Amino acid sequence: MRFSSRVSVTEPNRIAKARTPDVVDASDSNPTHHGLAPRRYAADPRGARAAREQLAAFIGARDGRTVDPDRLYLVSSTSQAYAWLTKLLCDPGDTLLVPRPGYPLVDSLAALETVGTQSYRLEWAGSWLVDALSLTPSPSARGVVLINPNNPTGSYLSGGELDFFASLGLPLIADEVFFEFPLDDAVERHRIAGEDRVLTFALDGMSKNLAAPYAKLGWIEVSGPGDQVEEALKRLDIIADAYLPVGDLILDHLPAMLEAIPSQQARVRERVRGNLEALKALASGVVTVYPPEGGWNVLLRFPDVIDEEDLVVRLIQEERVTVQPGFFFDMRVPGFVSLSLLLEPDAFANAARRILQVIEEVSL
Questions:
Q1: Secondary structure tally for the chain: helices H, strands E
Q2: 180-209 pLDDT, tens per residue?
Q3: Quick check: 28 pLDDT over 90?
Q4: What is the layout of strands, in order, in the sheet containing 324-325?
Q5: Where are the annotated segments for Disordered (predicted)?
Q6: Which helix (H) or strand (E) holds 314?
Q7: Among 347, 346, 329, which residue's Cα sits nearest to residue 338?
Q8: Residue 113's closest CA among 143, 76, 69, 156?
Q9: Which of 73, 89, 157, 345 has the fewest CB atoms in 10 Å of its CB?
Q10: What is the DSSP string of 105-142?
Q11: What is the pLDDT of residue 42?
């Protein structure tokens, strides 16, 4: 297993080895240790132990498995988790394997770490499937990004697809923030969190679980072969200790946030499922709804003679409605737009009618 050379794990120096618990630290600059703050704070690179225990209990109950709190890292967002893991796995000039179609933020975050991306394709064949033939990892590949379910396709990874990615032997960065928002109960779903065949970093967070972007608290769960996990934890501790992003004032709210997740997820699922069914009922003619398996978005397909950018500009100028064109997500072929399923039902139905009407008009 190869880790980035950015992070160096060294033996404690002589001073660190000489310290004992009864030594008075005359260099201690933590004001909470000296009666200058209402509560005591002790830095933990993985996040406060009590909070990690609460989170581990929640994940374990949700997934029906035992979760070790010492394999959890608390972060302010999944974006920060991507940045940390890129630092952990990649030197400048290395690459991460990323899905196409895919959300462009992953590429932006990699670029900020001076890391490149190599694409693997999802292809439509009545459902979105990973094209294994499109993926021959380059020598510079250091990890695979898996979005489960994918954004914008809304497709979950099948068990066979997960087997394929595990067989590559590369670390997996598994973004599962939309996992608990299935749109079709008959669809096969496999969580990647807890995968033990290959070094795996599963990302999740409150922002999506609570449909509350202001709830800036996420987490990384590390799993895989024991020796690789232990080495990854040592190195990830060094990165996390440099940032210490989540404070106790945020973690004070963790029990309430965890308690609110089931009801809030149910509320969001009801909304997105209802809007998806409304869209299916409205769509006809030249427009096809590519039904997502999960998540908050849906793709519309229309004749590729219609220019996506021209269409979106016309929608803005004439209908005061906007959507995201397919080229934002690097669709292989033109003729797609992506809609959010989160809008209030009346607003969604009204916008969908106008979008569909304009597409029909420009296709004539």
A1: 11, 12
A2: 999 999 998 999 999 999 999 999 999 999
A3: no
A4: 288-290, 297-301, 336-340, 324-325
A5: 1-45
A6: helix 308-314
A7: 329
A8: 143
A9: 345
A10: HHHHHHHHTT-EEEEEEEEESSSEEE-GGG----TTEE
A11: 87
Q: 278-294 burial by CB neighbour count: b if 16+ within 10 A, else e?
A: bbeebbeebbebbbbbb
Percentages (nearest 5) of helix, strand, coil residues in the chain? 40, 15, 40
Domain 29-260 in CATH 3.40.640.10? The answer is yes
User: What is the pLDDT at residue 21?
Assistant: 87
Homologous superfamily assigned to 261-363: Aspartate Aminotransferase, domain 1 (3.90.1150.10)
Does the pLDDT of residue 168 top 90, yes or no? Answer: yes
Phi, psi of 272 (to 5 degrees): -70, -35
* End-to-end alpha carbon distance in the chain: 57
Please enumerate in sequence order all residues whose Cβ is within 8 A of that of 108, keeping only pairs 6 or more positions apart, or say none: none
Q: Render pLDDT for 225-235 as a digit per residue (tens, 0 to 9).
A: 999 999 999 99
Helix (H) or strand (E) holding 337: strand 336-340
Boundaries of every domain in the chain: 29-260, 261-363
**Residue of 117, 110, 122 whose CA lies nearest to 96:** 117
Compute the distance between CA of residue 204 and CA of residue 206 in angstroms, rounded to an integer: 7
Residue 11: predicted pLDDT: 82
List the one residue out of 123, 177, 115 whose CA is nearest residue 146: 177
137-153 pLDDT per residue, tens: 999 999 999 999 999 99
Residue 158 DSSP class: P
Our measurement of the distance from residue 41's CA atom to the centroid of its chain's CA atoms, rounded to an integer in Å, reads 30
C-alpha 20/C-alpha 354 separation (Å) is 71
